[in-house]
Amino acid sequence: MVGRMSLQFIGDYGIFLPGRDAVGCAALDQNRLVRWYTTRSALEKLGGPGARDVSDLVNRFHQNRQLLERAADLKYRKGKVERDGSIRIELADLDGIAGL
Fold it and tell me: What would the pLDDT profile of 28-75 be if each residue is shown by its tens digit?
């Protein structure tokens, strides 16, 4: 569905999602909760290779949060969501935004 409204990021704390090997949290589209997460490969690119542990990935998520929120919002407005309605931010999603 193209033409969605922008997401409102609610500032909840990112948590590691072992099943997705990613760090995620939530945003709102009016009154609808939208889950979004960033993959390990994207977080490692942003913070250098080889995250020491899960807490290092979560720290990288928070250090780059504004950039990741922009990527999630852009992907959401384009309608590029997963089957479950979540937004997966991968390395390729950051290329145009961060110039990586």
Answer: 999 899 999 999 999 988 877 777 788 999 999 999 999 999 999 999
Q: Name the CATH topology of 8-98.
A: Double Stranded RNA Binding Domain (3.30.160)
Q: What angle do CA 31, 37, 40 make, to 5 degrees?
A: 175
Largest CA distance in the chain: 39
Say if strands 8-9 and 15-17 run parallel, antiparallel, or are unpaired: unpaired
* Domain range summary for the chain, segments of one domain joined by +: 8-98
Nearest to 86 by CA among 75, 97, 98: 75
Q: Which residues contact 27 (CB under 8 A, 6 or more apart)?
A: 7, 8, 9, 10, 33, 34, 36, 69, 72, 73, 76
- One-letter amino acid at 19 equals G
